[in-house]
Design a protein that fits this description.
Strand content: 15-25%
Largest sheet: 3 strands, mixed
Strand order of the largest sheet: 1-3-2
Structural class: alpha+beta
Helix content: 25-40%
Number of helices: 2
Shape: globular
Radius of gyration: 14 Å
Mean pLDDT: 90
Oligomer: single chain
């Protein structure tokens, strides 16, 4: 078995891959940017999957990740990874 990693520039929601990783917010609710684009493309099934995670575990804190079904996307799963919010206050 061999592993392959590629760097691709384009629309993440249309890639022919097994899994996509989403830079999610802690509420897993589809914010702006790529997170929002993934939620819009995946449709209501992704919203329901994220709501189910929140019902079971609450919000996903920074540094953690959860895996959901992909909704209407052509991938096997979506990994929602929550990072720290960066704000440049200066």
């Amino acid at each position: 078995m061999s592993a392959r990693i590629s760097v691709v520039q384009g629309d993440i929601t249309g890639l022919d891959v097994d899994v996509i990783v989403n830079a999610a917010n802690s509420a897993l609710c589809g914010g702006s940017g790529v997170d929002g684009a993934i939620h819009r493309a995946a449709g209501p099934a992704l919203v329901e999957a994220c709501q189910a995670v929140r019902r079971l575990s609450g919000h996903c804190p920074p540094g953690h990740a959860v895996v959901t079904e992909p909704g209407d996307l052509g991938v096997k799963a979506i990994i929602h990874a929550v990072g720290r919010a960066y704000r440049d206050w200066e």
